[in-house]
Structures are given as C-alpha cells and as structure tokens.
Amino acid sequence: MLPASTLSTSRPLRRILLAVLLVAGLLSCSPVLAQNSSPKTSRPKRSLVLEVLIQPSPIYRVRAQEWGRELQELGYAPRFREPAAGEKMRIEQQLKDGRDVLLVVGGLTKEGALTLGTKTYAVADMKELGRFLDDLRTHGPGGAPAGNPRWGLSEEQFQSFVKLVSEPVEGEVALGSAAAAVSSLKLPDSLTVVFADVAFQASLQPRPTSAPESMNLGGLTKGTALALVLAQYGMGFRPVPGRGDRYSVEIVVGDEGSNLWPAGWKTAESTADVVPAWLKSIPFDVEDADVASIAQAVADKLELPLIVSSQSIQRDGKPLEDLVYSRSGKLSPFGILRGLGDKFELGFDVRADEAGKLFLWATSSRDAAAFNKRFAHIRPPK
After folding, report:
1. What's the whole-model pTM score?
2. What sign has the CA pseudo-torsion 260, 203, 305, 249?
3. pLDDT given at position 254
4. Is beta strand 247-253 parallel, antiparallel or unpaired with respect to 214-216?
5. Strands (E), the chain
C-alpha cells in the first residue's frame, strides 16, 4: 500500500505574512484575476425586446392596449402583432452590433393573461412580472445560476463553456492560497475569474491545514480540476454567461449541495462497465490499517488516481489518515469502499472529467449524497 499523504502543520507567522504578500503580487499581475477578483460583481443587463402575439379579434386589441400601458410603466415598450405562420412563443438571446439582445416573444390568452416562456401573468401580477423581466435582462434565458440546474446557461452556452474548460491540466497544482492555486491552472483567457462575497477574503488566506500541499491533476480537464482544487478550500464555482463567447467563473463558498459545477461527473455507463475490476472479488485482509492507505490501494487496483476532498471529510469527521479499519475476506473494490463509507460516513465515487477521464473521488457521505441526488440522471457533457 502506498503511504498516506502528509498534511502540513501550521506555519510561523513570518511565513504566513510572506505568503499573503506573494499572493497580493500574484493578483496584481494575473490577467485573469487582477481586474475581476472583487468581493462583489455587477453583471451588465441585456437589452430586452418584447413582442406579444395576439389574434385578429377586437377583444385582443383592447387587452393589448391595457397591457401596453402597464408594461410601459415598467419601462418596456412592447410590440403587439399577429403571429407569422407557424410562429411560436420563445425567449432567445441574440448578438446585434456587438451587444447582447434578449428577444422575448410572448402571447395574450383569450382570457387576457400574458404568457412569457413557461409563466403566465394577469394584469394584477405586474410586480412579479417586473421581477421576471429584470431577471431575464440580468441572467439571460437560463435564469439565475445559483438556483438553476444548468447554472443559467442555454444548451449552446453550456456546450461552449464545456469546450472551454476541457483543456487538460499539466502536472501538479500547488495549493497555497485559493487565488494562487486557481491562477496556476492557467484557465483560458476568455474566462474571467470572480471571487464573490466572502470567498474573496477567503481566497487570500493560506492553505487550510486540512488540504494537501499539492494535487497531481495532470491530464484532467481544467473544469473538473478547478472544482477539485476549490473543494479543498470549501469553495466551488458556477459559470456565468457574458458577452459573446466570454464567460465568468463565479467562485463562492459552498459544497456539493450548493448547486456548484461538479467535482467530476457520473460515468457515461455504469461503473462496472467502465471499470471492469469494480465488482470482482479479491483477497482483503487488513488490521488497524489507516483508511487513506486502504483507499489508495483500492485506487491502485482499479488503476485510477485517488483524489480526496480533504475539507469536507475533516468538516464532518477525521482525516483519512486518522481512521483505522480492520476486516478480512474476499471483497470487491466496491464492497471495500462501501464498508469504509458505512463505518466512517464517507463517500467514494468513480467520476469522470469533461473529457471522460476517470478518477476515484473520496468525500464525506453528506456531500456524496448531495452529488448523487443532484446528478442522478446527468452524465458527462458530450
């Protein structure tokens, strides 16, 4: 079995101050982080063109006049018109003269209600309608990323973002401060990194004592690598669409239950199909062995890299190196890891990065359950 990774001890104050100074210098010269790493970020609002489809009937004309007055009070100038042959209601983002323009085509019902997207509003619902339109201008057709299963991205934007973060990482990633670690990943220039709210201050702090000094993420895609690195600091990220083909990576404090970009994806097929040794029994005989060494031995047997979410594990219990386990018999790698998980409230998953490269992820049972619930039917992006 391979020896357990060594966690660092607390540093002298002098070294901490030096680390903070080095990070400050890094932020001032990094093209990705320097101009956009601020506690809060304001997203530019899109121009919104509102068109409402009506039928060629006098009653629709009357209702259109009423809705026109109400919408003008909200600051919108709707255009009421009859639909073209086969035309459907829709919400789509367009790029005109280098500017993002949101085209919202809704319709009036025969009862006089206004339908936009999947929502229908009465004249009495103007405040709610105003919030909806304001959210559209701010976040686009996908909605706000924090509460959206696609983080506010359309299908086209989602695939575009996945392509951007599918470049492989080269070699090990040193874990100093979160800001330094993120900068070392060398994300594409079209991605702007923003540490939001409390994550900004936390990003300048030295590496948590729970985190390893470095992570060997060579070959993994940068999207998954970024999620794995941030997990060591109790953070994660969400993609935010910008203008054209540009995106922001909004880094926040959170875990796998916070609707963040996942620390790896469920495999495209069942684990047993992509990892043939997963369910094959092998002799297993350990007595008072530390869980870190056992997990590493299982990962070696599966020929997968082991990556540990040290922060979440220590948040809910003890480091893997401090947990000891005894058992003997013939067990599959799945059975061994399930036994460890049941005894110590851990979660072990075979996950894939955006390009399909596999790794074994060790985390807390709470985070594993949140991931499995959130991504129960979602597989790696194509």
Report:
1. 0.70
2. positive
3. 92
4. unpaired
5. 47-53, 79-81, 90-96, 99-108, 114-116, 119-121, 172-174, 191-195, 214-216, 235-241, 247-253, 265-266, 282-290, 306-308, 324-331, 346-352, 358-364
What pairs with residue 107 in β-bridges? 53, 115
User: 237, 223, 105: which is closest to 178 by C-alpha?
Assistant: 237
Cα–Cα distance between 61 and 79 in angstroms, integer?
12
At 147 the pLDDT is 60
Give the lowest-confidence range in 54-63, 153-162, 324-333.
Answer: 153-162
Q: Which comes out higher in pLDDT, residue 38 or 178?
A: 178
Burial bucket for residue 10 (CB in 10 Å: 0-12, 13-18, 19+): exposed
Domain 271-374 has CATH 3.40.190.10: no
Decide if 63 contacts 220 (C-beta within 8 A): no
Query: Any residues with CB less than 8 A from the CB of 157 and at least 6 apart, and which?
Result: 140, 142, 241, 247
Altogether, the residues listed in the chain come to a count of: 382
Provide the residue ranges of all domains of the chain, joining segments of one domain with +: 13-42+150-263, 47-139, 271-374
Q: Reply yes or no on whether the pLDDT at 95 is more than 50.
A: yes
**4 has pLDDT over 60:** no
Q: Is the dihedral of CA 85, 90, 93, 99 positive or negative?
A: positive
Are the C-beta atoms of 248 and 194 separated by less than 8 Å? yes
pLDDT at 317 over 80: yes
Q: Do domains 47-139 and 271-374 have the same CATH topology?
A: no
Overall average pLDDT of the 341-354 stretch: 96
Cβ atoms of 382 and 163 within 8 Å: the answer is no
347 confidence band (pLDDT: 50, 70, 90): very high
Distance CA 107, CA 103 (A): 13
Phi, then psi, of 264 in degrees rounded to 5: 95, 160
Predicted local distance difference test score (pLDDT) of residue 30: 44
Mean pLDDT value across the chain: 85
Encoded tokens for 381: 């992006």
DSSP labels for 159-183?
HHHHHHTTSBP-SEEE-SSHHHHHH
Which CATH code for domain 47-139?
3.40.50
Q: Which of 327, 376, 321 is nearest to 5 (CA)?
A: 321
User: For the CA atoms of the chain, what is the radius of gyration?
Assistant: 25
Biggest CA pair distance of the chain: 85
